[in-house]
Design brief:
- The chain has six helices and five strands; from the N terminus they run E-H-H-E-H-H-E-H-E-E-H.
- With 132 residues, it is α/β, with parallel strands linked by helices.
- The protein has a five-stranded parallel β-sheet with strand order 3-2-1-4-5, with helices on both faces.
- The longest helix is centred in the middle third of the chain and has 14 residues.
């Protein structure tokens, strides 16, 4: 199975190692599911996970990012012809995940905030993914 993980799922996993997002990241790290990504997603992961406000362990973050590069599936994403907006009517950064999802053979996007995405059955909250 292949997935695209929104950054908020990874941040949640780092913040709470016993939560459902951490279980999903563990499935990635144990190679039970494959994480699809492109350069934009990797850049987003790097930017967010290294923010000082989180104070995440730098070695763990670097190890995770290296794992993604080595064991994830790199996708050359094509921009999808769809508008993405957040609740304040500005462009949403979540389109990068949708572009990789649609350009790959990923089964799901897993996100902590479905309202930023089109209403599609393969865009799931972590708890919805766990039920599957």
């Amino acid at each position: 199975m292949k997935v695209v993980l929104d950054t908020n799922v990874i941040v949640s996993a780092f913040l709470n190692p016993k939560g459902i997002p951490a279980e999903i990241v563990s499935l990635v790290l144990s190679e039970k599911i494959i994480l699809c990504y492109d350069n934009k997603i990797l850049s987003e992961y790097t930017d967010v996970l290294t923010r000082s406000k989180f104070n995440f362990n730098k070695e763990l973050v670097n190890d995770f990012l290296e794992f993604v590069k080595i064991y994830g599936e790199y996708i050359v994403a094509e921009s999808q012809d769809i508008q993405f907006f957040d609740e304040s009517d500005r462009r949403s950064d979540d389109k990068i995940f949708y572009d990789v999802f649609r350009s790959s053979a990923a089964n799901y996007i897993i996100t902590g905030n479905k309202k930023h995405y089109p209403k599609e059955k393969n865009i799931l909250l972590p708890r919805e993914f766990k039920e599957i």
